[in-house]
């Protein structure tokens, strides 16, 4: 499973997109979204998110 954003918790800060080593996260309309084809489940974004808005 790729990383998944819990939209209700995401504030669109963009930290996860900056941290992702595979460029798998884009922040559109103040909510992050993950491209499951690019995500390798490294969990960098899970640890980086200040709101606990990403799970794997
Ligand atoms: S780091 Fe968390 S709160 Fe910030 S854009 Fe990513 S998922 Fe949303
Ligand atoms: S788990 Fe890793 S590869 Fe997948 S979106 Fe998060 S930082 Fe990017």
Summarize the structure.
This protein has helices at residues 15-19, 44-48, and strands spanning 4-5, 25-28, 31-34, 54-55.
What does this structure look like?
This protein is an alpha+beta fold and 56 residues long. It has a single domain, classed as Alpha-Beta Plaits (2-Layer Sandwich). It has two helices and four strands; from the N terminus they run βαββαβ. The protein has helices spanning 15-19, 44-48, and strands at 4-5, 25-28, 31-34, 54-55. Strand 2 and strand 3 (31-34) form a beta hairpin. The longest helix is centred in the first third of the chain and has 5 residues, at 15-19. It is globular and about 25 Å long. The relative contact order is 0.38. The model has no long low-confidence stretch (mean pLDDT 97). One iron/sulfur cluster (SF4) binds at residues 3, 19-20, 22, 24-25, 34, 39-45. One iron/sulfur cluster is lined by residues 5, 10-16, 27, 32, 48-49, 51, 53-54. GO terms for molecular function: iron-sulfur cluster binding; metal ion binding.
């Amino acid at each position: 499973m790729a990383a998944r954003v819990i939209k209700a918790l995401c504030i669109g800060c963009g930290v996860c997109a900056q941290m992702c080593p595979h460029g798998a996260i884009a922040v559109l309309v103040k909510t992050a979204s993950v491209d499951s084809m690019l995500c390798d489940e490294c969990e960098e974004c899970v640890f980086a998110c200040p709101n606990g808005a990403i799970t794997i």
